[in-house]
Amino acid sequence: MKKSKTKSKLSYERQNFWAKASQAEQDAAMDYAVGFKAFLNSCKTERETVVWAEDLLKKHKFVPLDGAKGKNAVYKIFRGKTMAMAILGSEPLSQGFNMVASHIDTPRIDLKQNPLFEDGPSQMACMRTHYYGGIKKYQWVSTPLALHGVVVKKDGSKVNISMGENDDEPVLIIPDLLPHLARKEQYGKNIGDAIDASRLNVVFSGKIEPESEEKEAAKLYALEILHKRYDIAEQDFLSAELQLVPAGKARDAGIDSSMVAGYGQDDRACAYTAFSALLAQVKSKPKRTMIVYFSDKEEVGSQGATGAHSIFIQDFVNDLLAYKGECNSSSSLRKCFMNSQIISADVCAAINPNYPNVHEKQNAVIFNHGIGISKYTGSGGKYSCNDANAEFAAKVLHTFEDAGVFWQTGTLGKVDEGGGGTIAYILANLGAEVIDCGVGLMGMHSLCELSSKADLYSTYKAYRVFLAIS
Ligand code: MN
Ligand code: MN
């Protein structure tokens, strides 16, 4: 008896949400996933996520930062692919803000700049592709894909394309090789090389004009359809952004429906939970300014105008300083970041029952035990990591605990098993306190990632209390 008392007092054990949460909380977790699945279905690309978010922000009376004066809920969109939104606090912003920073790009397969060709042997019109981010190529073949993206025409007008999501729309397929003939092409190779990037061509169409004797008749017919349907010509592809993503909807998973199966949960699981955590507090009058940031290009290194390395997020905070009537000199901006507290909101790898060996159980996230806190990421001797300060890590962890949020800690796999990073270090380079906290996934970067509704809901609650801390 005495022994177990000592244990309960001194030892740490993470809690299972379904064992310890109240019935009301369990119901709330199940309900929360309904909106999340709808979000995943509406947002398959970064551009679609930005459009979706702006629509909701307007409904919640947020205004563009460059627009009306005197509002306390503002947002800014940059290049249609990254955005930040804030609820202004009563304290000077120079004393720092609380930010939850996620990314809204996802691994996928892009069409090449000049994609369309007629394949001689098969006489089919096909599209060449170039994959985006860390995909396992073998997962993308012989599976229904939808085409999403934007074509910008000579007059600057945009054609938004989404094909393959509705039941009455066609999907696109990258056909895999039949097993009967795969002995030399695939079976003898290791899994990473079995499907070469040059074999990720989409079969686009096959019809030709009646009586046609044209060369490349299938390609010409494909161009006719594209012109009729979208009013675009072959040259318009050269500047377009067109992405192939898994077609179809996010679903409940498990006989208990306790999980969500769907594409793009890295990192839209954290984007959605952060976004809804901010919206839930739109009527609050916080002391510290709350910011939610959606970055782009995380899956390819966060570079460029819309990636987290971009000047955009600093420019946003700079504009917030001016909006609040505070000094926004470069020195003030630097100090503002150095006084700030940031959660790098990205998913982490939960233990997969098929591959427990790649994790070290004691330091891995498991489903249903709440938001996963990773003090550091990186690989091979913490290389390239952001290692959160002990002071800040303790503050965050105890904030979650005091608020009754289910939380756990975990790192990405065994030491030297592999590794990976998030945008944490980029924001930490600006002097802010930054720690990684997010939803654990099984099958990350796959066409159908798996999450736990308990963890999604816990992450939403965790972000909500974090945004409000002083
Ligand atoms: Mn991610
Ligand atoms: Mn990722």
Identify every distinct bound molecule in the structure, by name, code or SMILES. Answer: manganese (II) ion
Kindly report the name of the CATH homologous superfamily of the largest domain: Zn peptidases
Q: What strand order characterises the main sheet?
A: 1-2-3-13-4-14-20-16-18
CATH C-level name of the largest domain: Alpha Beta
In CATH, the architecture of the largest domain is 3-Layer(aba) Sandwich
CATH topology tier name of the largest domain: Aminopeptidase
Strand elements, count: 22
- Beta-strand percent range: 15-25%
Report the helical percentage.
25-40%
**Number of domain modules:** 2
Oligomer: single chain
**What is the general shape?**
globular
End-to-end span in angstroms? 40 Å
Rg computed from alpha carbons, rounded to a whole number of angstroms: 24 Å
Biggest β-sheet description: 9 strands, mixed
Task: Tell me the number of helical segments per DSSP (H or I, 4 or more residues long).
Answer: 12
Structural class, please? Answer: alpha/beta
Poorly predicted runs of 5 or more residues: none
Quick check: average pLDDT? Answer: 95
Protein described:
The structure is a single chain. 29% of the residues lie in helices and 23% in strands. With 470 residues, it is an alpha/beta fold. It has 2 domains: 311 residues, 3-Layer(aba) Sandwich (Aminopeptidase), CATH 3.40.630; 139 residues, Aminopeptidase i, Domain 2 (Roll), CATH 2.30.250.10. A 9-stranded mixed sheet has the order 1-2-3-13-4-14-20-16-18, sandwiched between helices. A 6-stranded antiparallel sheet has the order 8-7-10-5-6-9, covered by helices on one side. Strands 11-12-22-21-15 form a 5-stranded mixed sheet. β7 and β8 form a beta hairpin. The longest helix has 20 residues. The mean pLDDT is 95. Bound molecules: manganese (II) ion (MN) (2 copies). The site of one manganese (II) ion has 6 residues, from α7. One manganese (II) ion (MN) binds next to loops.
